[in-house]
Amino acid sequence: MRIAKRIGSALAAICLATAALWAxxxxxxxxxxxxxxGAMRSLEQHPEQAAHYYAALDSALHIGAALLERGSKGEExxxxxxxxxxxxxxxxxxxxxxxxxxxxxxxxASIMRGEDLSAGxxxxxxxxxxxxxxxxxxxxxxxxxxxxGEGAEQFAxxxxxxxxxxxxYFATPKTLQWVEQLKQESxxxxxxxxxxxxxxxxxxxxxxxxxxxxxxWGRVGDSPVIGAGTYADNAxxxxxxxxxxxxFIRHAVAYNLCARYKYLKxxxxxxxxxxxxxxxxxxxxxxxxxxxxxEGNIAMDFNSGGMFRGYLYKxxxxxxxxGEVGIGQKLVPVSNHP
Length: 338
Ligand code: ASP
What we know:
Layout: H1 2-23, E1 27-38, H2 41-45, H3 47-69, H4 74-87, E2 107-113, E3 118-125, H5 131-141, E4 146-148, H6 149-158, H7 173-181, E5 192-197, E6 203-209, E7 230-232, E8 237-243, H8 245-250, H9 253-263, H10 268-279, E9 287-293, E10 298-302, E11 306-315, E12 321-326, E13 331-333
Parallel strand pairs: 3-4
Antiparallel strand pairs: 1-5, 1-11, 2-3, 2-6, 5-6, 7-8, 8-9, 9-10, 11-12, 12-13
Aspartic acid is lined by residues 36, 189, 191, 209, 211-212, 221-223, 229, 242-243, 245.
């Protein structure tokens, strides 16, 4: 009886070890980024402008991949990438953020760790230089998941994060023009996001944005809402969204994708397609998302004209690094853009 029991537990241990081996991704690490979704019509007509975006996506991927290559945790890569986007005026995050109807800049950001479902977010901050850092501090140094407005700013100050005195720090000549005119119906795309599968097999997701052009001051979109704009769970996927936030909140898009993967056993790309093209569409829920599942499969889908996006991964067996970046339908090899 005792021998049978021992054989039983040895078999169980072998099964568990085999399952763990099977669960290991064929990709040593994976990083996917987005820089917002939108019509992209003007960029199609101006390839010289598009080249700046290709180069920025390329840099973002390489910043993240260098950390992942070194064995850094996914959250370090996500923060480094999103800090880069927040400093780059091309994108609607940090400097370059779009303005509210009141002519102010109100920033939202969030981050989630798939290993233990811990998450942090800030909404409507006006003086935090890197909102993604503040979101990370909410996750790691507070008992909360989301903080907003002045309370979030005071918390960021207490955490000794870099602050800016003037809200116009986030303005660029282009956004300042909008602040002055505000009648202009143009809008800025460029919310940024990053999802990662690191060498330890952990998933992380982060998103940072200025929100929607001419939003009412005080309005909060999907980007800082865990489950809507951002979600990560090691049992399923890491997701970051961009687009018309109100729809992404109503459809709990980021969690919705993880749930389809987990419960319907849908491949990540099919789940993304279903949500963006059947539940949402270009009129009701214009936008896109990036996702990576626990096996390293990725999705980069959108129902808009285009989405700034890119991915990069390292094959475990061969050590090859593969990656592409794109704006419209077409993808081009990473570091080999026009
Ligand atoms: N989703 C963002 C928001 O609604 C905006 C965007 O991604 O363009 O605030």
